[in-house]
Amino acid sequence: EMIQHALDRSEDLLNLVDNLMNLATARQEMSVENRSVVQLGDEMENILPSLKAEAEGRGLTLTLAIRDNPTVEVHPNHMKHLWTNLISNAIKYTRSGGRIRVTLDRDETNAIGGVLDTGIGVSPQDLLFIFNEFFRTAEAKKMERRGTGLGLPLVKRIVEGYGGRVEAKSTPGEGSLFRFTLPLAATPSGSKETKGRSAAP
Description:
alpha+beta, 8 strands, 24% strand, single chain, 6-stranded mixed β-sheet, 42% helix, two-stranded antiparallel ribbon
């Protein structure tokens, strides 16, 4: 029991250090020389298998609705952090039997992503602080003891660092929606973006 406690504590500290490093280096990694043109849906699907397995292990249904697969000019690792934090949060705070829906679309100027869940939700008062560093709601702590409170601040730093926006809407006991936009990458004249597809893996 003591060894397991030490292992759990060590893992918590490693996760904290990792998240702090990601926050500290995010802005530097956004420099133009570190950016690539990537398809946002591809970056999401690269990390999806492990998240889908985690969701199924918790008795959750995870579905995708990819209407378009827009290109954005970003550091590819940032998109992995973005999707991982949003989807894993939905998994952590949704009870068995719940549903998570990941969406991706675009308009004339922005890629639009979203993660909708039927989880525990967030009160209007707590929603004001949800993107603050180290902030975790009392309900979140009861349901999931382990957590750094740095995942959503990292999402906000990444999205806003590329000129996008992120917002959260939530109803306690019913679920939450996290939605973000990112400016589309400049498309060479005459070329077309790859259209997406809908799937429910």
